[in-house]
């Protein structure tokens, strides 16, 4: 998703990133100075996508279809609705 241009209705908010380095001995016996280093990077992004209700299924399917190797993602939905006071009073 990094290289793709975001649609105009989408905002990307960067979250803190972290990096962990591991150093492991290659051989526990004779070559104590021979070591291997591994690194784990955690990058977090927060996407805000504004959409209409009928387009939500298409956008969710598009996000779900992207298979990024070694990546995990979490999708949270929230929606805001406005109620018309006049309609509400008539119903009650």
UniProtKB/TrEMBL annotation:
Residue span, Small ribosomal subunit protein uS10 domain: 10-64
Full protein name: Ribosomal protein S10
Superkingdom of the source species: Eukaryota
Record Pfam families: Ribosomal_S10
Family annotation (Gene3D superfamilies): Ribosomal protein S10 domain
GO terms (BP aspect): translation
Keywords recorded for this protein, A-Z: Mitochondrion, Ribonucleoprotein, Ribosomal protein
One Gene Ontology MF term: structural constituent of ribosome
A GO CC term assigned to this protein in UniProt: ribonucleoprotein complex
Similarity remark: Belongs to the universal ribosomal protein uS10 family.
Organism: Citrus sinensis (Sweet orange)
SUPFAM superfamilies the record matches: Ribosomal protein S10
């Amino acid at each position: 998703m990094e290289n793709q241009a975001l649609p105009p209705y989408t905002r990307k908010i960067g979250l803190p990133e972290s990096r962990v380095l591991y150093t492991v001995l290659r051989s526990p016996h004779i070559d104590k100075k021979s070591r291997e280093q591994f690194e784990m990077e955690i990058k977090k992004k927060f996407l805000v996508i504004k959409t209409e209700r009928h387009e939500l299924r298409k956008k969710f399917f598009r996000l779900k279809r992207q298979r990024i190797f070694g990546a995990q993602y979490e999708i949270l939905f929230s929606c805001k609705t406005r109620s018309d006071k006049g309609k509400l009073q008539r119903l009650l």
